[in-house]
């Protein structure tokens, strides 16, 4: 999540809104955000009913949490890119930025 903050200008330059979402509660998000030194983009809680969004997108991990999943959703609400990584692996922003640039050039 901090890497998105680091590259936020690049994302915004591609007409993008970065969002984070997990099945954690709002207080948990707030504490985590503060421990990182603040995140300026929205963090959403899929806490109640727990995992409804996670389940709708099909990315619930067998242990009950959401997978580390990236979705690019266009302005019409169509999912244009999905990438699910193991929870211990960090995706490269460059790949996401490349996919976003493809959408801008449509």
Notes on the protein architecture:
The chain is α+β, with helices and mostly antiparallel strands. It has helices at residues 2-6, 8-13, 26-35, 52-56, 93-104, and strands at residues 20-22, 43-45, 68-73, 79-85. The chain is 36% helix and 18% strand. The strands form 2 sheets. The chain has a two-stranded parallel sheet with strand order 1-2. Strands 3-4 form a two-stranded antiparallel ribbon.
Indicate the CATH class.
Alpha Beta
Structural class, by secondary structure, is alpha+beta
Query: Can you count the helices?
Result: 5
Number of strands: 4
CATH topology: Glutaredoxin
What overall form do the CA principal axes indicate?
globular
Which strand order do you get reading across the main beta sheet? Answer: 1-2
How would you name the CATH homologous superfamily?
Glutaredoxin
Percent of residues in beta strands:
15-25%
Which range best describes the helical content: under 10%, 10-25%, 25-40%, 40-55%, 55-70% or over 70%? 25-40%
CATH architectural grouping: 3-Layer(aba) Sandwich
């Amino acid at each position: 999540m901090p890497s998105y903050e680091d590259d936020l200008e690049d994302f915004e330059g591609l007409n993008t809104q970065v969002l984070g979402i997990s099945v954690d509660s709002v207080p948990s998000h707030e504490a985590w955000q503060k421990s990182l030194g603040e995140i300026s983009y929205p963090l959403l809680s899929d806490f109640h009913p727990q995992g409804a969004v996670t389940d709708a997108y099909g990315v619930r991990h067998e242990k009950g949490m959401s997978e580390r999943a990236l979705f690019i959703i266009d302005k019409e609400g169509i999912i244009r890119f999905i990438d699910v990584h193991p929870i211990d692996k960090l995706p490269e922003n460059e790949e996401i930025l490349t996919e976003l640039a493809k959408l801008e050039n449509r």
